Amino acid sequence: MTIGEALKKERKDLGLTQTEMAAGVISTAHYSKIERDKHDISAYDLFEILTKNNISLLDFIKK
């Protein structure tokens, strides 16, 4: 599973839109491209999105 696929799964499990998931960290357009594996995400932005949405980094990595 790619990072984009894992983010999409987490977002859907939380019942969030892409805009809600990425709010305050990166643009919705950029986030959408990450979910579709068209762009990479920096470690910093990934950690920010996970933290903002109360997603455990360890649980995320295990997936």
From TrEMBL:
Protein name: DNA-binding helix-turn-helix protein
HTH cro/C1-type domain segment(s): 7-60
Gene Ontology MF terms in the entry: DNA binding
Source species, domain of life: Bacteria
PANTHER family on file: TRANSCRIPTIONAL REGULATOR-RELATED (PTHR37038)
Pfam (any one): HTH_3
Keyword set includes DNA-binding: yes
Keywords for the protein's UniProt record, in alphabetical order: DNA-binding
